[in-house]
Amino acid sequence: MNDIMHRGGVGVKDKRQFNTPLDSSWHALYLIGFYRLALAVIFIISYLFLPAPSLLGKENPIVFFIASNIFLIYALFSIMSSYYRAPSFNLQVYVHSFVDICIITICMHASGGIDSGLGVLLVVTVASVGILCNGRVAFIYATSAALIVALEQTYRLIWLDSHGYYFVQTGLLCATLFISAILSNVLAKQLRDSAVLAAQRGVDLVNMGQLNEFIIQRMGSGVLVVDNRMHIRLMNEAAWYLLGMPAKDELRPVVDVSIALNVELMQWLNDNQYEPETFRVSGVNAIYPRFIRLGMQDYAGTLIILEDTSFLDQQAQHLKLTALGRLTASIAHEIRNPLGAISHASQLLEESTNLDQADRRLTQIIREQSVRMNVIIENVMQLSRRDKAIPELILLKPWLDAFVLEFCRVHDIELSKILLEVFPNDLQVSVDPSHLHQILWNLSQNGLRHGLCDACEWILEIKGGELTDSHSPYLDVIDHGSGVSEEMVEQIFEPFFTTATKGTGLGLYIARELTEANQAHLDYLRDQAGGSCFRLTFSNVIKRRAR
To answer: How far is CA 541 from CA 128, 429, 474, 512, 538, in A?
Structure first.
């Protein structure tokens, strides 16, 4: 947010500069220089090529010609100075306008005074001052021009015996000068206010655009903008992360980023009533896309919003755990105490000397089933009491070596019967070690129970590595049993679902719940060589030990 405030500060700084000349004012001054140049060229051409006696310079041709050449040279100088913007803007306006008034008055005097019509050119000069400067300066120059014109006509009346009725024309010209100064200043003020307002709005729009970009980039939902050619024009950080952190190339096709997303987008474009389906990238995050058409034209682009459903899954998980907590409390109160009494009574009954062999078998069944029911209660209570995940960065290969050694020792299995492979050897994952231990213990027990194969060299295979596309670490637990049928794949992770006569049906369910708590994902994959493969995919990017 500090970045946005800093950018907003730039906008404020720009507003302070509104009192300085705008680029449009310099451009206008530059164009006036060309007007001055064109006027001087016309004066010189008329003097050289029009037949005598010409209207321009008819009373004093030499003065007119000299003034016109001076005007030409000064016009070139004014163009250069306004182009390089030196000296200052106000100084250039003041000097250029004063020189214009003087030279035009001299040319007017040499051409017969007010009767020549050149006095109208003074209106253009005064109007340009009114446009480029404030009203006070324009009024001063209008007064100066009117005074010079009046003095010229007075001189002509006294010394050259001019007609007195030319004072009427002189008065009208002076009035025109003042009116042009006032009107041009009013118009220029409105134009300057509009320019300042437009500049302010431009700064506001830039700041708003930067703020919108800041918000979009930091939204929790992924945002993509795709044009009509299926090329990505915009991708925020959340979308980049959800799609597996692809290369940030401009105008990259959607199909190169995610084939599944491209399929959903194409189906939606063909049928706007199509309900998009959740897809996964690298088997980690479940992503639900929403599509919004930008504009009503066929060539308009599409806005794609990607939602990570893991947050909803966590909420659902929290609700399930809350319900299980209440259930286990009820079970502990209503079942465990009577179950303990039954188990204790069966043990006392077994000590009786009056029981025959058949009765002793019945008491044994009572004791075994009581133990089984107690295991179920312990598993459910363990699930409801599960602590929040505290992830740590662990080196996977040494940790798995210790786990396999412990598992073989507890289940009386030869260490050579479990194949352990991790590549690279320095692969690290971020996970709660206690949760990972319970997840692998449940998966390994499940493989040991359902995957025994006398002809196989290994009972279990545990393989770790990294996914090719996203470089996310994964861990496979593979057995060589008969596998899981297609119709049961969606049920094996449900609580209390089991195909074993003595199973509780909570091992895989607890494993998946612990996996989701660590921002990872547990999937069942059918092994190509037969048997089952449970893949644990971690959400963090692989980190290597510093060498």
So the answer is: 67, 8, 10, 20, 8
